[in-house]
Specification:
Strand content: 5-15%
Low-confidence stretches: none
Largest sheet: 5 strands, mixed
Structural class: alpha/beta
Mean pLDDT: 95
Strand order of the largest sheet: 3-2-1-5-4
Number of helices: 7
Shape: globular
Distance between the termini: 32 Å
Number of domains: 1
Length: 185
């Protein structure tokens, strides 16, 4: 996946849900900060974009996420046509450090503008360090490989990730402590 495809995913998810903004929380959110030629290949291989409707009502968020996935999800005509799927998610999908919303990377350009209506949409992508925290807290091998590749390429500062892990909400402090211990080994 590349940045233009990310923009297409943002535009499509917003149009499907009839909202102005979505938050990209999965691995493809890294494309909000870096172009594919700057990234290790393992970081942009996924053909799925995790998009969360940026609405304050949680029940509405869940309904819109289901709608996005129903129209653009895995095995949909959308995926068949465009080669990637939209995975509608909500706030329970990722474990994120305090303050993550204040660090979102805005993606809003000519590719997030609807070519027919002219309506401008926005994608808010996780800050790379916050993305690494979410990936490490997920605890899957593919997520550890993703983060290791970003560390090895010097695209994300390991110490910043450590700091963000310390800033986890209390309900996630146990998993953050485990991840911190693993990060220091």
């Amino acid at each position: 996946m590349n940045r233009e495809q990310l923009c297409h995913a943002i535009r499509a998810a917003c149009a499907i849900a009839e909202i102005d903004r979505v938050i990209v929380v999965g691995s493809q959110s890294i494309l909000g900060s870096f172009d594919t030629d700057e990234l290790p290949a393992v970081t942009h291989l996924s053909a799925e974009v995790d998009v969360m409707p940026d609405v304050s009502d949680f029940d509405l968020m869940v309904r819109l996420s289901d709608l996005i996935e129903g129209v653009g999800g895995e095995l949909s005509p959308f995926e068949e046509l465009h080669g990637f799927a939209l995975d509608g998610v909500d706030l329970t999908t990722s474990v994120l450090p305090l303050g993550w919303r204040d660090r979102l990377v805005v993606v809003r350009n000519e590719f997030t503008k609807d070519p027919v209506t002219g309506k401008q949409y926005s994608g808010l992508c996780l800050d790379p360090a916050d993305l690494c925290v979410a990936k490490l807290c997920a605890g899957r091998e593919k997520d550890r490989a993703f983060v290791a590749a970003l560390f090895d390429a010097d695209l994300v500062d390991r110490d910043l990730v450590r700091t963000r892990l310390v800033q986890m909400p209390a309900e996630h402090s146990d998993v953050a402590a485990i991840v911190l211990a693993e990060l220091d080994t």
